[in-house]
Amino acid sequence: MANYSVRNQVAIISLCSPPVNALSSDVRRGILDSLKKAEQDVKVAAIVICGEGRTFCVGADITEFKSEFKTFPNLFELVDILESSPKPIVAAIHGHAFGGGLEVALACHYRVALSSAKLALPEVKLGILPGAGGTQRLPRLIGIDSSMQWIAFGDEYSAQIAANIGIIDRIFPSNADILESAVQYAQSIIGKSLINRRVSKLPVKDASKVSHIMEKYKQIVGKKSRGAIAPMVCLEAIKHAALLPYVEGMKKERMGIEALMGSDQSKSLIYMFFAERQVRNWTIPGTGINSKNTKPIKVEKVAVIGLGTMGRGIVLSLLKAGIKHVSVMELNKTARENGLLFIKNILEGYAARGTISETQKRSMVDALKPVSNFEMLKDTDLVIEAVFESMSIKKDIFAKLGQVCKPSAVLATNTSALDVDEIAMVTPKPKQVVGMHFFAPAHVMKLLENVRGSKSSPQVIATAMNMGQRMGKVTVLVGNCHGFVGNRMFRHYTVETDFMLEEGAYPEQVDTVLKKFGFAMGRYQVGDLSGNDIGYRMRTKFEMTNKQQPPGAPERER
Ligand SMILES: CCCCCCCCCCCCC[C@H](O)CC(=O)SCCNC(=O)CCNC(=O)[C@H](O)C(C)(C)COP(=O)(O)OP(=O)(O)OC[C@H]1O[C@@H](n2cnc3c(N)ncnc32)[C@H](O)[C@@H]1OP(=O)(O)O
Ligand SMILES: NC(=O)c1ccc[n+]([C@@H]2O[C@H](COP(=O)([O-])OP(=O)(O)OC[C@H]3O[C@@H](n4cnc5c(N)ncnc54)[C@H](O)[C@@H]3O)[C@@H](O)[C@H]2O)c1
Predict the structure, then answer these.
(1) Among this protein's residues, is 103 annotated catalytic?
(2) Which of 169, 296, 512, 550 has minimal Cβ neighbours within 10 Å of its Cβ?
(3) Where is the signal peptide (predicted)?
């Protein structure tokens, strides 16, 4: 749906489809009907398109993809109708202008935004391409090179960056009223010629360099998005913007999206998009307790015990989440020094790349608090233990934590496979104990399995889930069993690859085949990164390390 009103010669078309103003068929119809009203009203001299609620528009409604194309106007028809309007249209952007939302904005004659707004053409992450003129209009506005960067990787950019390269015409402070500001802006452009404002009519500035730029991006995409079809199709479509008139380029874009939509890769990525959101709605089976009726405790001070492979990544994730007090406890002096150096080097790298500012980096370094004894953890809200995978060491640590930590403190273990209930039993309050199972490297990997012990309280679970989301992790609640979910899945894969070694393959051969198939890393690279001792300890626990068995003996007998 879209609402329509008129204020001082300016018609306002406001998208109204909570929570994110996705462009469903009703919204598209609403925009078109409102546009007709505005064009017919002689008192209207300019038009503003804005979004109600928290955001401008996140693009096509992904839930309607199957029926998207049957109802008039579909998105690629709507953008051309908007652009050809005889009255100037201003897109007023706050929150997100993503995908089809940005394509609508590109079809408007002017674009203004709050400085806090984010812009992206992220369709490639759904295995498709921007199919409403994005691959043809963006190059006409910002050139082939930047368009390839935006479209083939789908990353989001700040409104300021978008303004610097010519997408946004005027930025307003983040606390301004976007609608009021846009209406005033629209009044200021009344009567101006639209000749240079219709993006589809503009030339592509760096068109002559297209072959060279294409080659560069083919190489980058080949490395960064190995195995993915959509990024290459995006590059092809953008190339056509340089070589063909707009109408012909649009035909190529259309062929691209028709080829991609419904592909196995796109279906899987769309499934993943919704699955990653669905897991936020956790429940404890059979109890009626769930994410909607349970509140997390407030977490300000966190401690991490053990600064090895996992601990250092967990600390970085906490710092990136903005936790202002992260205590770190590591027994081994060399491991402590190496761990702290690793963390500081990674933060330096983020600052050098502009991912964080120098001020943010300094405040993250200041948030790091090395501690040497358990007493120093007494007012910590959440402790995450990441020491060796040994039940006796973990029990020793949890017994001490149980004695010193305040009663409300959440005590989490990063164990890969040990019984969370057995660890919880050594504390006076087992309901405060939960598993928080990160994956290596913990500051990079997005998955976090929170393990629900039989005694973990709902509030403790809510706190672990909330913490995961604060860290930007895809946070999944799982039951307490050997290896939880991730490692139980991974185990079958490792068993098969280990059989291949026994049959004569080298680890690097196995890894090469897996990477060629599309895996980001080979199985043995993962082993080296995580530490092969972890798997060894798990197998030893299940008495699977008898070296005398012949190759091919059933895995259970080793
Ligand atoms: C078979 C051959 C046919 C060929 C025909 C060819 C014709 C082609 C014509 C097609 C034209 C379409 C072209 C267009 O380019 C395509 C698109 O626009 S695809 C969509 C692109 N946009 C995105 O991918 C954005 C996706 N969303 C996000 O990344 C995030 O939501 C956000 C914008 C970063 C905001 O994040 P948050 O604030 O954290 O919010 P949530 O993620 O939790 O979202 C809240 C809520 O909204 C739901 N949702 C979000 N985006 C969409 C969406 N685009 N469609 C539907 N629903 C959406 C999300 O699932 C959450 O729902 P909840 O979990 O709360 O139920
Ligand atoms: N490596 C992985 O891929 C991975 C993935 C998920 C979970 N885990 C789990 O995370 C935990 C840590 O694994 P890791 O790979 O980081 O191990 P690691 O060997 O790299 O690091 C463990 C660190 O803990 C320190 N330590 C040991 N006892 C301590 C104590 N009492 N107090 C303070 N520090 C102590 C050690 O000195 C060492 O630096 C294990 O339970 C493991 O199963 C590991």
Answers:
(1) yes
(2) 550
(3) none
pLDDT at site 552: 64
pTM for this predicted structure: 0.88
Distance of CA 299 to the CA centre of its chain: 23
| Calpha distance 488→504 (Å, rounded) | 25
CA of 306 to the centre of ligand 1 (A): 40
Radius of gyration of the chain (CA): 27
DSSP 514: H
Does the beta carbon of 372 sit less than 6 angstroms from any atom of ligand 2? no
Q: How far apart are CA 171 and CA 337, in angstroms?
A: 45
Tell me the per-residue pLDDT of 381-429, one tens digit each, with 9 for 90 and over: 999 999 999 999 999 999 999 999 999 999 999 999 999 999 999 999 9
- As a whole number of angstroms, the distance between CA 421 and CA 454 comes to 7
Ligand 2 atom at minimum distance from 537 CA: 43
State which amino acid sits at residue 215.
E
CA dihedral sign of residues 545, 548, 551, 557 = negative
Q: Which residues contact 31 (CB under 8 A, 6 or more apart)?
A: 2, 13, 15, 49, 78, 82, 104
Question: Which entry of 123, 253, 389, 449 is annotated as an active-site residue?
Answer: 123
CA 162-163-168 angle, to 5 degrees, is: 90
Atom 37 of ligand 1, nearest CA residue: 20
Confidence label for 158 from pLDDT (cuts 50, 70 and 90): very high
Cβ-proximal residues to 336 (8 Å cutoff; 6+ apart), any chain:
307, 328, 330, 370
Kindly provide the b/e burial profile for residues 243-258, where b requires at least 16 CB atoms within 10 angstroms of the residue's own CB: eeebeebbebbeebbe
Residue 16 CB neighbour total at 10 angstroms: 15
Assembly ipTM: 0.92
SS3 3: strand
Q: Is 180 a catalytic residue?
A: no
223 band by pLDDT with thresholds 50, 70 and 90: confident
If one residue of 55, 56, 62 were mutated to test the ligand 1 pocket, choosing by the most ligand atoms within 8 A of its CB, it would be 62
pLDDT of residue 68: 60
Token pair listed for 479: 């039951």
**Contact of 341 with 316, CB cutoff 8 Å:** no
Q: Is the CB–ligand 2 distance for residue 311 below 6 Å? A: yes
Is the bond leading into 430 cis (omega within 30 degrees of zero)? Answer: no
Indicate if ligand 1 lies below 6 Å from the C-beta of 60: yes
Does the beta carbon of 390 sit less than 6 angstroms from any atom of ligand 2? no
- Report the separation in Å between the CA atom of 306 and the middle of ligand 2, taken as the mean of its atom positions: 6
Helix (H, G, I), strand (E, B) or coil at 13: strand
Ligand showing the shortest atom-to-Cα distance for residue 138: 1
Residue 385 near residue 327, CB atoms below 8 Å: no
Q: Is 456 in the pocket of ligand 2 (CB under 6 A)?
A: no
| Residue 261, ligand 1, Cβ within 6 A | yes
Instruction: Compute the distance between CA of residue 555 and CA of residue 557 in angstroms, rounded to an integer.
Output: 5
